[in-house]
Amino acid sequence: MKDEGTIAILVATYVSIILLTVLGFASVGIAILASHRIQGVADFAVLYGHDRSVRAGIPEQSLLDSHVRNFLALSESADRIDLVQVKNWITGETSNTRICARYKDLFGFEMDSMIICREASAKSFLVF
Questions:
Q1: Where in the chain are the domains?
Q2: Fold for domain 10-123?
Q3: What's residue 99's pLDDT?
């Protein structure tokens, strides 16, 4: 009795499973990094804008908007993201910023990520 065949199909299946697993882990890791990058930009933008827009403990909306815009235009940390939407609002003594953006060039193939939205807030405390 003679068994003839090939294991090429089995090898191709194993290689495709390994490749799918590696690409899956890489995609999840890069998505987490992109999310943290956008959160960091939102945190620093609201801190920068809030610090420069507070007068007597209360932030001013027009100053907050202009300083957040200024930070996003000039900071190196915002260079790798493509801003889709930036919204600033004030609730009492708290400044809030919501940034929706894409993290640019995930794999080096000029591919953009999905839109990721993150919020941050800042509040000043008066010391007498």
A1: 10-123
A2: Pantoate--beta-alanine Ligase; Chain: A,domain 2 (3.30.1300)
A3: 95
> Angle CA(38)–CA(21)–CA(11) in degrees, nearest 5?
155
Q: Are 113 and 34 in contact (CB under 8 A)?
A: yes
Q: Can you tell me the distance from the alpha carbon of 50 to that of 64, in angstroms, rounded to the nearest whole number?
A: 6
Look over the chain and give the mean of its residue pLDDT values, rounded to a whole number: 86
3-class DSSP assignment, residue 112: coil
Contacts of 21 (CB under 8 A, 6+ apart): none
What's the predicted TM-score (pTM) here? 0.78
DSSP helix/strand/coil, 128:
coil
Q: Which two tokens stand for residue 51?
A: 């610090």
